[in-house]
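Lecture 7 notes: from sequence to structure.

We start with a single chain of 274 residues. Read the sequence below before looking at the structure.
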Amino acid sequence: MFILTYIDSVGKRFVAVIKYTISIWTMVYISMRSGFSYNKKHSFVEILKVIGAQIYFTGFQALPIITTLALITGTLIIIQTSAQLSKVGGGDMLGNLLVVLIIRELGPLMTALVVVARSGTAVASELGNMKVNSEIEALESMGIDPLSYIVFPRLVGGIISVVCLALYFCFIALFGGYLICQFIHPIAFSFYFDSIAYAISRSDVFLFLIKNIFSGGMIFTICCYQGLLVKQSFTEVPQVTTKAVVNSILYTVSFNSTVSLLVYLKNLKELGIL
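Now the structure, written as C-alpha coordinates:
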Protein backbone atom coordinates (compact mmCIF):
# COMPACT_ATOMS: atom_id res chain seq x y z
CA MET A 1 0.00 0.00 0.00
CA PHE A 2 2.85 2.36 0.91
CA ILE A 3 4.60 1.61 -2.39
CA LEU A 4 1.46 2.39 -4.40
CA THR A 5 0.98 5.66 -2.49
CA TYR A 6 4.61 6.63 -3.12
CA ILE A 7 4.35 5.81 -6.85
CA ASP A 8 1.15 7.85 -7.10
CA SER A 9 2.84 10.80 -5.34
CA VAL A 10 5.85 10.63 -7.66
CA GLY A 11 3.56 10.46 -10.69
CA LYS A 12 1.62 13.55 -9.58
CA ARG A 13 4.88 15.44 -8.99
CA PHE A 14 6.16 14.45 -12.42
CA VAL A 15 2.94 15.62 -14.09
CA ALA A 16 3.12 18.91 -12.15
CA VAL A 17 6.72 19.45 -13.30
CA ILE A 18 5.74 18.79 -16.93
CA LYS A 19 2.81 21.23 -16.73
CA TYR A 20 5.01 23.87 -15.08
CA THR A 21 7.70 23.45 -17.74
CA ILE A 22 5.14 23.78 -20.53
CA SER A 23 3.78 26.96 -18.92
CA ILE A 24 7.30 28.42 -18.69
CA TRP A 25 8.16 27.70 -22.33
CA THR A 26 4.76 29.02 -23.42
CA MET A 27 5.49 32.30 -21.65
CA VAL A 28 8.91 32.48 -23.36
CA TYR A 29 7.36 31.99 -26.79
CA ILE A 30 4.48 34.43 -26.28
CA SER A 31 6.74 37.08 -24.72
CA MET A 32 9.28 36.87 -27.54
CA ARG A 33 6.57 36.98 -30.19
CA SER A 34 4.84 39.92 -28.52
CA GLY A 35 8.07 41.82 -28.01
CA PHE A 36 9.44 41.44 -31.53
CA SER A 37 6.08 42.02 -33.24
CA TYR A 38 5.25 45.23 -31.38
CA ASN A 39 5.15 47.94 -34.07
CA LYS A 40 4.60 51.17 -32.14
CA LYS A 41 7.87 53.10 -32.30
CA HIS A 42 7.45 55.02 -29.05
CA SER A 43 6.55 51.84 -27.19
CA PHE A 44 9.59 50.04 -28.61
CA VAL A 45 11.80 52.85 -27.33
CA GLU A 46 10.29 52.38 -23.87
CA ILE A 47 10.95 48.65 -24.09
CA LEU A 48 14.60 49.38 -24.94
CA LYS A 49 14.80 51.62 -21.86
CA VAL A 50 13.50 48.79 -19.68
CA ILE A 51 16.01 46.39 -21.25
CA GLY A 52 18.80 48.86 -20.52
CA ALA A 53 17.67 49.28 -16.92
CA GLN A 54 17.55 45.50 -16.48
CA ILE A 55 21.08 45.11 -17.90
CA TYR A 56 22.33 47.87 -15.59
CA PHE A 57 20.78 46.30 -12.50
CA THR A 58 21.50 42.66 -13.31
CA GLY A 59 24.83 43.07 -15.05
CA PHE A 60 26.67 46.24 -14.06
CA GLN A 61 25.64 46.37 -10.40
CA ALA A 62 26.57 42.70 -9.93
CA LEU A 63 30.20 43.25 -11.02
CA PRO A 64 31.62 43.73 -7.48
CA ILE A 65 30.30 40.42 -6.14
CA ILE A 66 31.15 38.59 -9.37
CA THR A 67 34.69 40.00 -9.24
CA THR A 68 35.16 38.87 -5.65
CA LEU A 69 33.84 35.36 -6.29
CA ALA A 70 35.85 35.02 -9.50
CA LEU A 71 39.12 36.08 -7.86
CA ILE A 72 38.66 33.70 -4.93
CA THR A 73 37.54 30.81 -7.14
CA GLY A 74 40.22 31.33 -9.77
CA THR A 75 43.03 31.69 -7.26
CA LEU A 76 42.11 28.56 -5.32
CA ILE A 77 41.63 26.43 -8.43
CA ILE A 78 44.87 27.59 -10.10
CA ILE A 79 46.93 27.02 -6.95
CA GLN A 80 45.45 23.60 -6.25
CA THR A 81 45.58 22.28 -9.82
CA SER A 82 49.08 23.57 -10.59
CA ALA A 83 50.47 22.28 -7.29
CA GLN A 84 48.95 18.82 -7.68
CA LEU A 85 49.85 18.47 -11.36
CA SER A 86 53.46 19.49 -10.75
CA LYS A 87 53.81 16.60 -8.30
CA VAL A 88 52.91 14.02 -10.95
CA GLY A 89 54.51 15.77 -13.93
CA GLY A 90 51.21 16.71 -15.51
CA GLY A 91 51.77 20.43 -15.92
CA ASP A 92 50.69 20.29 -19.56
CA MET A 93 47.16 19.43 -18.39
CA LEU A 94 46.77 22.70 -16.47
CA GLY A 95 44.96 24.51 -19.29
CA ASN A 96 42.57 21.61 -19.93
CA LEU A 97 41.59 21.41 -16.26
CA LEU A 98 41.06 25.16 -15.94
CA VAL A 99 38.88 25.26 -19.05
CA VAL A 100 36.75 22.38 -17.80
CA LEU A 101 36.42 23.65 -14.24
CA ILE A 102 35.98 27.38 -14.84
CA ILE A 103 34.63 27.91 -18.36
CA ARG A 104 32.48 24.82 -18.64
CA GLU A 105 31.22 24.38 -15.09
CA LEU A 106 31.85 27.00 -12.41
CA GLY A 107 31.50 30.11 -14.59
CA PRO A 108 27.91 29.43 -15.71
CA LEU A 109 26.86 27.94 -12.36
CA MET A 110 28.27 30.66 -10.06
CA THR A 111 26.94 33.41 -12.31
CA ALA A 112 23.46 31.87 -12.36
CA LEU A 113 23.36 31.57 -8.57
CA VAL A 114 24.41 35.21 -8.11
CA VAL A 115 21.81 36.40 -10.62
CA VAL A 116 19.07 34.36 -8.96
CA ALA A 117 19.97 35.74 -5.52
CA ARG A 118 20.17 39.37 -6.68
CA SER A 119 17.95 39.91 -9.69
CA GLY A 120 15.61 36.93 -9.66
CA THR A 121 14.23 37.80 -6.25
CA ALA A 122 13.88 41.46 -7.25
CA VAL A 123 11.97 40.65 -10.44
CA ALA A 124 9.59 38.22 -8.75
CA SER A 125 8.78 40.61 -5.90
CA GLU A 126 8.51 43.59 -8.28
CA LEU A 127 5.98 41.88 -10.53
CA GLY A 128 4.12 40.53 -7.52
CA ASN A 129 3.73 44.03 -6.09
CA MET A 130 2.68 45.33 -9.50
CA LYS A 131 0.00 42.67 -9.65
CA VAL A 132 -1.31 43.52 -6.17
CA ASN A 133 -1.34 47.25 -6.95
CA SER A 134 -3.34 46.55 -10.15
CA GLU A 135 -0.57 48.03 -12.32
CA ILE A 136 -0.80 45.06 -14.70
CA GLU A 137 -4.52 45.66 -15.20
CA ALA A 138 -3.82 49.36 -15.77
CA LEU A 139 -1.40 48.51 -18.59
CA GLU A 140 -3.96 46.19 -20.17
CA SER A 141 -6.64 48.89 -19.96
CA MET A 142 -4.31 51.22 -21.91
CA GLY A 143 -3.87 48.61 -24.63
CA ILE A 144 -0.32 47.66 -23.58
CA ASP A 145 0.54 43.97 -23.58
CA PRO A 146 2.18 43.17 -20.20
CA LEU A 147 4.18 40.33 -21.73
CA SER A 148 5.77 42.63 -24.31
CA TYR A 149 6.32 45.56 -21.94
CA ILE A 150 7.19 43.75 -18.69
CA VAL A 151 8.32 40.17 -19.35
CA PHE A 152 10.06 40.56 -22.73
CA PRO A 153 12.54 43.31 -21.74
CA ARG A 154 13.43 41.56 -18.49
CA LEU A 155 13.95 38.30 -20.34
CA VAL A 156 16.18 39.85 -23.03
CA GLY A 157 18.08 42.02 -20.56
CA GLY A 158 18.54 39.05 -18.25
CA ILE A 159 19.97 36.79 -20.96
CA ILE A 160 22.41 39.48 -22.13
CA SER A 161 23.48 40.18 -18.54
CA VAL A 162 24.02 36.52 -17.63
CA VAL A 163 26.15 35.84 -20.73
CA CYS A 164 28.28 38.95 -20.14
CA LEU A 165 28.64 38.27 -16.41
CA ALA A 166 29.69 34.67 -17.03
CA LEU A 167 32.27 35.82 -19.57
CA TYR A 168 33.56 38.40 -17.10
CA PHE A 169 33.66 35.77 -14.34
CA CYS A 170 35.79 33.44 -16.46
CA PHE A 171 38.18 36.22 -17.48
CA ILE A 172 38.68 37.44 -13.90
CA ALA A 173 38.99 33.89 -12.55
CA LEU A 174 41.59 32.85 -15.14
CA PHE A 175 43.73 36.00 -15.30
CA GLY A 176 42.94 37.79 -12.04
CA GLY A 177 43.42 34.53 -10.19
CA TYR A 178 46.71 34.04 -12.04
CA LEU A 179 48.04 37.42 -10.84
CA ILE A 180 47.22 36.63 -7.22
CA CYS A 181 48.64 33.13 -7.65
CA GLN A 182 52.00 34.65 -8.59
CA PHE A 183 52.56 35.70 -4.97
CA ILE A 184 52.01 32.12 -3.76
CA HIS A 185 52.88 29.71 -6.57
CA PRO A 186 54.59 31.47 -9.52
CA ILE A 187 53.80 30.22 -13.04
CA ALA A 188 55.33 31.49 -16.29
CA PHE A 189 52.74 33.62 -18.08
CA SER A 190 53.68 32.34 -21.56
CA PHE A 191 53.19 28.75 -20.45
CA TYR A 192 49.95 29.60 -18.65
CA PHE A 193 48.45 31.59 -21.53
CA ASP A 194 49.45 29.01 -24.17
CA SER A 195 48.03 26.12 -22.16
CA ILE A 196 44.65 27.84 -21.87
CA ALA A 197 44.63 29.03 -25.51
CA TYR A 198 45.31 25.51 -26.79
CA ALA A 199 42.77 23.95 -24.42
CA ILE A 200 39.77 26.08 -25.47
CA SER A 201 37.81 24.60 -28.37
CA ARG A 202 34.63 25.42 -30.26
CA SER A 203 32.70 22.93 -28.18
CA ASP A 204 33.70 24.79 -25.00
CA VAL A 205 32.43 28.08 -26.45
CA PHE A 206 29.22 26.39 -27.61
CA LEU A 207 28.58 24.82 -24.18
CA PHE A 208 29.35 28.11 -22.48
CA LEU A 209 26.80 30.00 -24.59
CA ILE A 210 24.13 27.29 -24.35
CA LYS A 211 24.37 27.06 -20.57
CA ASN A 212 24.30 30.79 -19.96
CA ILE A 213 21.57 31.59 -22.48
CA PHE A 214 19.38 28.89 -20.99
CA SER A 215 20.17 30.00 -17.42
CA GLY A 216 19.34 33.62 -18.15
CA GLY A 217 16.15 32.70 -19.97
CA MET A 218 14.92 30.30 -17.32
CA ILE A 219 15.78 32.51 -14.35
CA PHE A 220 13.89 35.54 -15.59
CA THR A 221 11.01 33.62 -17.16
CA ILE A 222 10.39 31.67 -13.96
CA CYS A 223 10.68 34.77 -11.79
CA CYS A 224 8.28 36.72 -14.03
CA TYR A 225 5.88 33.77 -14.14
CA GLN A 226 5.86 33.39 -10.37
CA GLY A 227 5.46 37.13 -9.83
CA LEU A 228 2.41 37.23 -12.10
CA LEU A 229 0.79 34.41 -10.12
CA VAL A 230 0.13 36.78 -7.22
CA LYS A 231 -3.59 37.43 -6.79
CA GLN A 232 -4.70 40.09 -4.30
CA SER A 233 -2.60 39.91 -1.15
CA PHE A 234 0.85 41.33 -0.35
CA THR A 235 1.52 38.24 1.77
CA GLU A 236 1.73 36.20 -1.44
CA VAL A 237 4.75 38.18 -2.68
CA PRO A 238 7.41 36.56 -0.44
CA GLN A 239 5.87 33.14 -1.10
CA VAL A 240 6.10 33.42 -4.89
CA THR A 241 9.59 34.94 -4.56
CA THR A 242 10.77 31.90 -2.62
CA LYS A 243 9.24 29.56 -5.20
CA ALA A 244 10.88 31.56 -7.99
CA VAL A 245 14.32 31.20 -6.41
CA VAL A 246 13.92 27.48 -5.73
CA ASN A 247 12.55 26.66 -9.19
CA SER A 248 15.17 28.82 -10.94
CA ILE A 249 18.00 27.02 -9.14
CA LEU A 250 16.49 23.59 -9.80
CA TYR A 251 15.99 24.20 -13.52
CA THR A 252 19.39 25.83 -14.00
CA VAL A 253 21.38 23.23 -12.08
CA SER A 254 19.46 20.36 -13.67
CA PHE A 255 20.07 21.66 -17.19
CA ASN A 256 23.78 22.38 -16.60
CA SER A 257 24.29 18.96 -15.01
CA THR A 258 22.47 17.17 -17.82
CA VAL A 259 24.47 18.96 -20.53
CA SER A 260 27.76 18.24 -18.76
CA LEU A 261 26.82 14.58 -18.28
CA LEU A 262 25.93 14.15 -21.95
CA VAL A 263 29.20 15.78 -23.04
CA TYR A 264 31.30 13.57 -20.77
CA LEU A 265 29.45 10.44 -21.87
CA LYS A 266 30.09 11.45 -25.48
CA ASN A 267 33.80 11.89 -24.72
CA LEU A 268 33.97 8.51 -23.02
CA LYS A 269 32.27 6.91 -26.02
CA GLU A 270 34.79 8.51 -28.39
CA LEU A 271 37.62 7.11 -26.25
CA GLY A 272 36.09 3.63 -26.47
CA ILE A 273 35.40 3.36 -22.73
CA LEU A 274 31.63 3.09 -23.24
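The first helix runs from residue 2 to 36. Keep this in mind for problem set 3.
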